[in-house]
Amino acid sequence: MELKPMQAKTRSLVACVAAACIAFAGALAAPAPAAAQPLHLAQAAPAGQTASALETLSIVSGDKRHAFQVEVMRTAEQRARGLMHRRYLPADRGMLFDFARVEPVAMWMENTFIPLDMLFIRADGTIARIAENTEPLSQRTIPSGEPVLSVLEINGGVSRTLGIKPGDRVEHTLFKR
Q1: 4-8, 31-35, 55-59, 166-170: lowest mean pLDDT where?
Q2: 138 and which of 60, 103, 109, 122 could share a cystine (Cβ 3.0–4.6 Å)?
Q3: Distances (CA, A) of 165 to 41, 119, 155, 168, 175
Q4: Does pLDDT of 44 surpass 50?
Q5: Per the CATH hierarchy, to which homologous superfamily does domain 54-171 belong?
Q6: What rounded mean pLDDT belongs to the chain?
Q7: What are the structural domain ranges in the chain?
């Protein structure tokens, strides 16, 4: 008779452990609540492409400094791909195109789903021209208007919101000090 209380305790313990295991397995299989899911800020690069490391860039406009984290496109292949096929760009991010020499350039928005501001930048880091809110998926060319070393692409409308204008200075290792 002394085994019965022990068997009852064992059965109770086994039942509790089994219930806990079932609950744990269910929690693993169920999607996490929205607040607990990781936030994916940018669409992953298409197969065979890797995202570039982020570098810090600042735009000095009057007495204000605006910091961005940018991918720098240094090769012809990287520049040709740019922000194509992406559907989201975080507010503090951008893409800097390094053309390696000063020359007139033209950009376009083919296969680019995000409206962008394009800042055409001289070798000394000053902004020559801004093309605001460029049209997604357009094949229309957007010229620099003068020889430039680089183009910075940021979310459409950000230049106006932050008060960035031609003549403002971009600070990054790419530009002469």
Answers
A1: 31-35
A2: 109
A3: 27, 9, 15, 6, 18
A4: no
A5: Protein of unknown function DUF192 (2.60.120.1140)
A6: 80
A7: 3-36, 54-171
